[in-house]
Amino acid sequence: MFLLGGGARAESERNKIERGPLRISADETVSLERGKIIEAKGNVLVHYDMDSGDLISSESDFARYTEKGYEGEIWGHPRAWWFRKDPNNPKTTLTAERVHLDIKQSQLRATGHVRVEQGSSTLKAQEVVYDNEKKIITATGKRPVFEIEQKDQNTLISAEKIIALVNDKQIRFTDRVKGRVLMSPENLEKN
Fold first, then answer.
1. Average pLDDT in the 115-125 region?
2. Which of 26, 113, 156, 189 shows a CA-CA span of 20 to 30 A to 76?
3. What is the rounded distance in angstroms from the CA atom of residue 66 to the CA atom of residue 165?
4. Half-sphere exposure of 180 toward its Cβ, with a 13 Å CA cutoff?
């Protein structure tokens, strides 16, 4: 169901709304304040085409987009994917309880049991903030964990705060850092 600005309703099997680079489809969508606010419920799919040529896609139970603030939010088992235009950058997968995208600030904030996966790396935390302009990821809350799983070894590092400098391919760990490296028996015999 789609509620038009004047209160008229249009029925369809799947409701779709497009606003520039943003596309939303769901079982039910509501457009408020003459399309300035969009709310979606049930099997929500959101696609956002970034200026860089990258694509962010998500699925969730609920979503809201506010045009005035250029903000979007998904919740209810949200899962998001960032597909990069550059084939050298692998897909990033994000799960959390809630994801908030602030387009004006070029920031994404995920909260509640956050899990970010890219290639063999996984970042787990209560909150993860990605600043797209600075290309910095900050993970905080309940000892964030960074893990790399490879064929011959598994590395796990936790700290009070984990900061990833994306362009520099560096990860910084602050305060009370703990870690372990597990190597396969075959790899240990070679050394």
1. 93
2. 156
3. 29
4. 2
